[in-house]
Amino acid sequence: MNYTVVKAFGTESSNANLQLLEIKRRTLLGKDVEIDILYCGVCHSDLHFARNDWGMTQYPVVPGHEVVGKVTQVGSETSKYKIGDIVAVGCLVDSCRSCQNCKDDLEQYCPEWVGTYGGFDKHLQENTHGGYSEKIVVDEDFVLKVPDNLDLAGIAPVLCAGITTWSPLRHWKVKKGSKVAVVGLGGLGHMALKLAHALGADVTLFSRSTNKIDDAKALGADRVIISTDQNQMDSVINTFDVIIDTVPYVHDLNPYITTLNTNGTLVIVGYLGPLDPMLVTVPMIMGRKSVAGSLIGGIAETQELLDFCGKHNITSDVEVINMQNINEAYERMLKSDVKYRFVIDMKSLKA
Ligand SMILES: NC(=O)c1ccc[n+]([C@@H]2O[C@H](COP(=O)([O-])OP(=O)(O)OC[C@H]3O[C@@H](n4cnc5c(N)ncnc54)[C@H](OP(=O)(O)O)[C@@H]3O)[C@@H](O)[C@H]2O)c1
Ligand SMILES: [Zn+2]
Ligand SMILES: [Zn+2]
Prior knowledge:
The protein has about 350 residues and is of the alpha/beta class. The protein has helices at about 45-50, 100-105, 150-155, 160-170, 185-200, 215-220, 230-235, 255, 280-285, 300-310, 325-335, 345-350, and strands spanning about 5-10, 20-25, 30-40, 65-75, 85-90, 90-95, 115, 120, 125, 135-140, 145, 180-185, 200-205, 225, 240-245, 260-270, 290-295, 320, 340-345. The protein has twelve helices and 19 strands. α4 packs across α5 (about 185-200). One zinc ion (ZN) binds near residues 95, 96 and 112. One zinc ion (ZN) binds next to loops.
């Protein structure tokens, strides 16, 4: 299949820095849209994937699945977008479109879903590459409309950090008066605070960091519980309807389960892998409490969130960086030293 070559930033191995690479973008198929990338958010998953933390990475990798850009070309059969439109792409660029999950707008659970990076592009017959690049070519069904009243750098993280926390808030029916807690104040965590607050919930942040209390309250938390302080943890036993756990590494879930109210659910979105220590079933059985997981969100639900953000004027708190500073940004993200999402200004790649 024909293609064009574009500049990108990626890595050839798990222990190498990200650097300038050249990648292919397919020549437009009928329903494809070519997007000139303006901003791309930096997700902790980008770092996990680049460093093969999940043991499934094939190299080279070009991360990035929080993409905002401008349409520069459209295929002959497109109907949703035109040249000049400001659009977004999140974590998905294709799926089978016929399984029950696809029919139910749950493309993220389709067995054949294609990730924006690290997926397989059946047209090019090679791995997909993400948003740390000049341009991307995506089927219009996986392209999203961006509300025109929002800052474009600030909207980028909605495409992953936002939808990953929105989807469980919606699935577990968070509404006015729901008691919601969020574990970890990073990219996902800060979006979870904003979104749960906007839904009218009473919101608590669990954090290890005592220096984030004022920020958390400004972002929408009604209170902050320092998770290493046993007295503070005891003060919220049997409290929450939903807990969204965004911590990226293995950690003890048991102290959080005891803070769920009867019928409450702890939703893991951060850590992927076996738990350690094991779960103690007693509080779960004694209070019909659940532990669940959740993966990003479908296309329709992501559009619903973008529209909700437009209506409520919600964007991410971002630190805009140049592409060339990505390796330093990864090190800072590992130290939780970002308020609260890095977003790459892709002009820097073109310079
Ligand atoms: N399920 C999905 O679909 C999905 C989608 C996107 C991302 N993810 C995953 O979600 C996780 C979070 O991503 P992110 O971009 O929000 O990361 P992030 O910006 O680095 O934030 C993670 C936060 O977790 C807390 N934390 C970090 N290390 C910890 C540790 N060892 N023990 C306890 N707390 C720790 C910190 O908050 P405090 O300082 O407040 O404690 C930190 O700010 C990543 O693993 C990512 O891969 C999953
Ligand atoms: Zn992500
Ligand atoms: Zn499917």
